[in-house]
Amino acid sequence: MSGVAGDWADRAMAAVMERVTTTEAQVGERFPLYADPRDGIWKTTGRGSWTGGFWAGLLWLRARYSGSAADRRAAAGRTAALAPWADADTVTRGLVFWYPTALADGDPEAAVLQERAARAVLAARDPELGLVPWGEAFGGPRLQARADGMPGTVPLLATLAPGAAAGHLHRHLDLCLGPEREPLPAWRFEGGDVGWQPCGEPGRGWSRGRAWLLLAVADALLLPEVAARDRVRLTEAARRLLSLEGILSGPFVPPNDRAAPYGPLDTSAAAITAVALLKLARVPEDWAPACSYRGVVTLSTLAAKHLTAPGSGRPAGMLLDGCYDAGRGLAERHELVWGDFFLALGLASLNGLVDLTRV
């Protein structure tokens, strides 16, 4: 879709790439999580948590944008620093490893790390449950299935075992897209006759849950070996998600919790949704024109209304109004590293830097 957007996308991409550079100078060898909207100061972590791959991914996007060998080295270094997560018990290894390694442009060390991570995730698959469980790396019950355990994990698994990738996705769809119209993004397995039970948090109204589901389905439809397992079911799941208010209709930037429409927004959910829609626009179905239009307009809305501009008293290129965790009152109106990443990824696809069928 190179050239479909216009000058606004070029300006927005330049601002986001400038922000990557100011962030790099601030965080050094640490990983950014979320930044204060008043001054752009990042909360950081030493190991990256579940968001580390998005920072490494942003660095790879900057390397593509600049063409600089120094930027490639920086991206490769931060990607290599994620290696300890390959041994962590968490399905979010899909988020951690897929995006930076998929963007690594033939970097041999990134390719080795991608295979190592894929084998670790495949080994963690529970054949009785039919999925890779949530894991215990971040506390709480290990045997959970959550919407954010699907994106990244499905394409990562597909590099080794498309059948396992399809099984992981469809088991999650069985749970998350139940008989209720609104998806339920989190389940826990109690064992015995009790089986799977819904989690109270995050609840049905979690906008990021919908976005992660849509992204996972879009990814699967663009992976022929995965889609072949049940393309009809995937197409039906996509249509169901696209019919929800806030996906192809309604506000471009949703509230973090649709049950609290006057609460904080979540621009990160909007950015994830925009990328998912642009992916679905590449699937040969009748939804393609609407998905393309909505995806581009969502990105332009984020750029026009939520991205800091030069001379604003804050660093340029901050995607504000992201909500990290409203339940804990944590970073409810902040810049989030994954929001920045998906905004940049969407813009990069419009500017011809990235082929979304491969990332």
Could you explain how this protein is built, in words?
The protein is mainly α and 359 residues long. Helix content is 48%, strand content 6%. The chain has helices at residues 7-27, 52-66, 69-80, 93-102, 108-123, 153-158, 162-176, 207-221, 224-227, 231-242, 267-280, 288-305, 337-350, and strands at 31-35, 42-45, 144-146, 186-189, 196-198, 335-336. Strand 4 (186-189) and strand 5 (196-198) form a beta hairpin. Helix 1 runs antiparallel to helix 13 (337-350) and helix 11 packs parallel to helix 13 (337-350). 52% of the residues are buried. The model has no long low-confidence stretch (mean pLDDT 96).
Write the layout of secondary structure elements.
Layout: H1 7-27, E1 31-35, E2 42-45, H2 52-66, H3 69-80, H4 93-102, H5 108-123, E3 144-146, H6 153-158, H7 162-176, E4 186-189, E5 196-198, H8 207-221, H9 224-227, H10 231-242, H11 267-280, H12 288-305, E6 335-336, H13 337-350
Antiparallel strand pairs: 1-2, 1-6, 3-4, 4-5
Helix pairs in contact: 1-13, 2-3, 2-4, 2-13, 4-5, 7-8, 8-10, 8-11, 11-12, 11-13, 12-13
